[in-house]
Amino acid sequence: MDFSLSLILSYYMKTMESTGNEKVHIIPYRTFLYVLAGLIVLTLTSVTLTQISLGTITVAMALLIAAIKSFFVLRIFMHLKFEKRMFSIGVTAVALLISVVIIITLLDYLYR
Q: Does residue 9 lie in a domain region?
């Protein structure tokens, strides 16, 4: 059984075109630049926050800033904004689960 690679690729391309499941979302470069600027500002804020001694609030603030940055990356760069609602619910559920685990760990650390 000798199959030509071009024959297989052409069949694959035809089936991909015929399904029509792909959606094209064009996001303006301006939006990417705004998100990039926001991520840079938040990164500089978290670096500055480490220089200030706020006690236990420092870790909570750093985690909050990291959560905001991950929200930007998920929504804009990974196009979660344009996906079905079920994907957003799944990502939110995982984020809440991770948040609960982190909060329980911090509470254990604080009250030992």
A: no
pLDDT in tens, 66-103: 989 988 888 888 877 778 888 888 888 998 999 899 88
Q: How far apart, in Å, are the Cα atoms of 13 and each of 16, 26, 34? A: 5, 22, 35
Neighbour tally for 65: CB within 10 Å: 17
Instruction: Give tens-digit pLDDT for 23-39.
Output: 677 888 898 899 999 99
Count CB-CB contacts under 10 A for residue 81: 12
The total domain count for the chain is 1
Q: Which domain holds residue 91?
A: 28-110
Paired tokens of 66: 């990291």
Look-up of token digits 């689960």: 97
